[in-house]
Amino acid sequence: MIDGIDLRHTGLFYYDYLLTLSSEVEIIWRSKWSLSTMFYTCIRYETFLVATLGLLHNFRLTPTSGPQQTVAR
Fold first, then answer.
1. pLDDT over threshold 60, residue 72
2. Residue 28: closest CA among 40, 14, 46
3. Whose CA is closest to 10, among 63, 51, 58?
4. Rounded distance between C-alpha atoms, residue 45 and residue 43, angstroms
């Protein structure tokens, strides 16, 4: 089950990503590739991948988490 704090942290992470994307494109993606730009890219997008997979994992539906159906007799 997803915790409200986890959702807020992930939301802040995505918000920060969107705020800094234009700077990242200008500084990182348009520069000559070096060891430091490769490290930055790996760390940045590995964190993005982990946050996304964690969010998807926490939103999975289980038989007990969905709406309950009742049958009138």
1. no
2. 40
3. 51
4. 6
* pLDDT tens per residue across span 13-66: 899 999 999 999 999 999 999 999 999 999 999 999 998 888 887 776 555 655
DSSP 17-56: HHHHHHHHIIIIITSPP-HHHHHHHHHHHHHHHHHHHHHH
Q: What's the rounded Cα separation, in Å, for the pair 37 and 30?
A: 11
Which of 52, 48, 7 has its CA nearest to residue 24? 48
d(CA 53, CA 51): 6
